[in-house]
Structures are given as C-alpha cells and as structure tokens.
Write the structure tokens for this entry.
Amino acid sequence: MTKQLRFIIISSIIVNFIITLIPFMQEKKSDKLIEMKGEAMTSKVVKSEKEWKEILTDDQYHVLREKGTERPFTGQYWNFAEKGSFKCAACDQVLFNSDTKFDAGCGWPSFYDVANNKNVTLKDDFSFGMHRIEVMCSNCGGHLGHLFDDGPKPTGQRYCINSVSIKFEKIEKEK
Ligand SMILES: [Zn+2]
C-alpha cells in the first residue's frame, strides 16, 4: 500500500465520520433552542388541560379554560363592595382593583379599568354571531369575560368579568 493510498483511505474515513456526526450535532442544537424558548416562557403559566382540571373547580374550569359564562346574578362578586384587589383565580395575577369596580346592573362584576394593562390580553371574539372583545389573563391565558365601551367615566369602558374567574384579596389597613 502506497503512502498516498493510505492517506486517501484514512481521510475518507475521517470525512465519513464527520458526515455521520453532523445530524447529531444539529439535533443537539435544536434541542437547546427549544430549551431556551421554554426558559423565556417560564414567566407565563403553561399547564395542560389535565393539570388545570386538577387545580380548578368545575365552574372555574368551564369559564377560565372553556370560555364559559356564569349565569348573571349568581356569582360571588357581582354585588360586592369590599376594598381590595381581584386576582386571577387560576394564577393569582392581580387583574382589577376595587376602586374601579362599579355596579353595571348586569349581574356580573364590572370594572371600568384594569389594575395594569399588561396583566390582561384583549382579543376579538366573533362567537354567537356577534363581535365582542374577550378579556383574558395575560399570565395564564384564562378567560375572564368581555370588554364593552358603555362603561362610566373616566375610561368609558366596562370590563364585564365572571366572578368565578377572579378571587378577592382584601387590602389590609395601613397602621
Ligand atoms: Zn391567570
């Protein structure tokens, strides 16, 4: 065997080895990308429907995850005037404050503003043959209710929210 032939054989083995390794290297890289995406999303609550079913009551699950609506004048907060904040029943993010709550006479808790614009997501909703704006928790994607433009001053907005989607937390008086 000449030196040249040996060189060709050895180098072709090396090249083959590298070629077979390339897909593995690429796979690893894409795994890492997915991992990184996962990390970036950890601030949001992501659960499977099975996990939500375990955490939420049947009524909460129906409204928050299946975009249901509780019957008017039946919820915990439509006729409720205590001072405090209202958090998402699924993930505890603060959504509304009692100082923007008003009686809209519709049988659902109503607010003319949100605690923080970042904490809710608004989305067009064309269900039931009408156009409404759906209000969701920005942290967990839970359905909260709808936004209408017939609210009182200063915003003129009415966030019509299901009691079952939120939970009240009383503000302790400062000493
Ligand atoms: Zn939430």
